[in-house]
Amino acid sequence: MALRNIMGKRVGIGLMGSRALSTATCDVESGSAKSINLYSAINQALHVALETDPRAFVFGEDVSFGGVFRCTTGLADRFGKARVFNTPLCEQGIVGFGIGLAAMGNRAIAEIQFADYIYPAFDQIVNEAAKFRYRSGNQFNCGGLTIRAPYGAVGHGGHYHSQSPEAFFCHVPGIKVVIPRSPRQAKGLLLSCIRDPNPVVFFEPKWLYRLAVEEVPEHDYMLPLSEAEVIRQGSDITLVGWGAQLSIMEQACIEAEKDGISCELIDLKTLIPWDKETVEASVRKTGRVLISHEAPVTGGFGAEISASIVECCFLRLEAPVARVCGLDTPFPLVFEPFYMPTKNKILDAIKATVNY
Amino acid sequence: MALSYLRSSSSRSANLLKPLSSGLSLRSPISTDTTPITVETSVPFTSHRCDAPSRSVETNPKELLTFFRDMALMRRMEIAADSLYKAKLIRGFCHLYDGQEAFAVGMEAAITKKDCIITAYRDHCTFMGRGGTLLEVFAELMGRQAGCSKGKGGSMHFYKKDSNFYGGHGIVGAQVPLGCGLAFAQKYSKDETVTFAMYGDGAANQGQLFEALNISALWDLPAILVCENNHYGMGTAEWRAAKSPAYYKRGDYVPGLKVDGMDALAVKQACKFAKEHALKSGPIILEMDTYRYHGHSMSDPGSTYRTRDEISGVRQERDPIERIRKLILSHDLASEKELKDIEKEVRKEVDDAITRAKESPMPEPSKLFTNVYAKGLGVESFGADRKEVRATLP
């Protein structure tokens, strides 16, 4: 793992970039913690962000009364309508507006109500946000922009309330894509994203908004971006994932353990720029890798991880890289259980890979 | 009175003088009388860059009773859908139209099934207006094979090709440029038909709407853009989302008409006017001042951003079904009992349809892969692990 000096600068990892406001890096473990769910953790992070930076703004559709998932509860009352406000229904306008706000040195925290609706804003994100610093020769930037969107399956979301569009954004140099797996991670990662000097797209797993409950420190803390975390140690196969899918993968790991297969599970956390080193180190240990995500398999981010691993670890690999992902169909309605990369599909793939 | 030979105007109770012509059917008789009646709309039309049509609408007993029946059916259907959703038989998202029925029936009365309609996700009643059946509605809501989209679409994606109903769209505002494309095709084929592209007050702030308006006006397309203004874009009131909530004026160079969307006759008059206008001079915007009793969807209680008094106030003052009921009663076209019988009948129809819909099976698992691409393309879709499950997309 990379060393970090007091200022939070990553040492020895070239392009990762330094983090802004890194003096606020508190020890995650100190202070009191309370058991809360994901939307409350995100809510706390937003409260902290607005409290600590007077030029931070939260806006989006219906955020004023608390938002459809209650992530923005209490913000309008506490910080006023000039800093927390509703926008009309216009994603392209929301993100474009956010870019402008950020370009003036503010922290613009834009909410897209469901990741499925982010596409009208795709042009703004890809062509404006990602390239602003680059094409202005560093005169301008919109680093203060953070776009939050709930993503992922929820059991009955259908075509337009379940999509995982992270792969589209991973293809764009100039922005970061971050996905938390749990409440504690979410609060720390979101604060890091907001304070990061680059535009970030932060996908929140909506399935976990109420379901995931964890001890979350009450103080202001940040978790590092572009650092993957090994959340389960193992020696036979490396599993890589992010967001809600990790809990499914963990169940598969536990089942595989009963068959004597020791699985190492890695949470990527930041998809771009991703922590190749941690994954590589793990694959060198185990010789096998399996990637799982809800998005369709073809062209999903698993493909990028797979290609990179093969590039660096070809001779070490004992089996082809396995990908257990969504099917190559639109996200279905009643067929959701067939579409999803379930625990059993992952388990099958683990066994197939180990017995290759 | 012209109608006195059909009904005994003096006796509201047992129909002692029931006419022979309608006495034989087992259902409540819908009058086949087409004697014209003239009714004034609730409010005059407000126009933008055009001459408003007259407030006097021509109708007849048959039409009024049909309106009543159709709206009662739609109302009952939506309420039944509410119960089914709460019983978890309908899953996913369900956006109910009750309160807005007058638009669906009024529009249909002014156009033909050759005209195209395209709308957003609050489409159950629009689908019914286009000739959809209750079975298709409930089966689709429950994700069954008998549904209009074969169970693969759900609440937001109802379509009916044979009556040119282009659905049923989840992404807000996306259907409007699509509607303009339909209109272009209609103009090109010179078949004297128009397209009604419906959207809500929330969607009125989408950029693509203005792109669509510009295109339709530039090329004189027979497109009628209908803003069903129910005053709330999910949880956001119109005055907090739009600088100018006069949606009928937002077309700027495109003429517009503001209509009381709870008055089915006003809607009919406006749509008739709009169709004539669109065929002659290009696009027009209709703003329907309407209201939804339910929240945005079944996940929204609908009371966090508006008061219960407001909802019940509208229900008392402007309910579309009550308006037609009063009209029918005041013109003596049917008795109160007959209208109640119609409502009972409608309730039974809905219950029967639900029972039949429940019997319809879920789609076959193999259907997960169908219709991704055009048939026979032979594209392979991989299963989860790319080794075992491979299906050639049919």
Key structural traits:
heterodimer; A: 356 residues; alpha/beta; seven-stranded mixed β-sheet; five-stranded mixed β-sheet; disordered N terminus; B: 394 residues; Rossmann fold; 2 domains; six-stranded mixed β-sheet; two-stranded antiparallel ribbon; 12 helices; 12 strands; globular; EC 1.2.4.1 (chain B); Pyrv_DH_E1_asu_subgrp-y (chain B)
Q: In words, what does this structure look like?
A:
The complex is a heterodimer of chains A (356) and B (394). The longest helix of chain A has 15 residues, at 38-52. A seven-stranded mixed sheet of chain A has the order 5-4-6-7-9-8-14, with helices on both faces. Chain A is built from 13 helices and 16 strands. The two termini of chain A are 30 Å apart. With 356 residues, chain A is of the alpha/beta class. The relative contact order of chain A is 0.13. Chain B is α/β, with parallel strands linked by helices. Chain B has a six-stranded mixed sheet, with helices on both faces. In chain B, helix 9 links the parallel strand 9 and strand 10. The chains are: A alpha/beta (356), B alpha/beta (394). Chain A binds chain B through residues 61-62, 65, 68, 86-90, 92-93, 116-117, 119-120, 155-161, 297-298, 322-325, 327-330, 332-335, 338-339, 341-342, 345, 348-349, 352, and chain B through 91-93, 143, 151-154, 156-157, 170-173, 202-203, 205-208, 233-236, 240-242, 299, 304-305, 362-363, 365, 367-369, 372, 381-388.
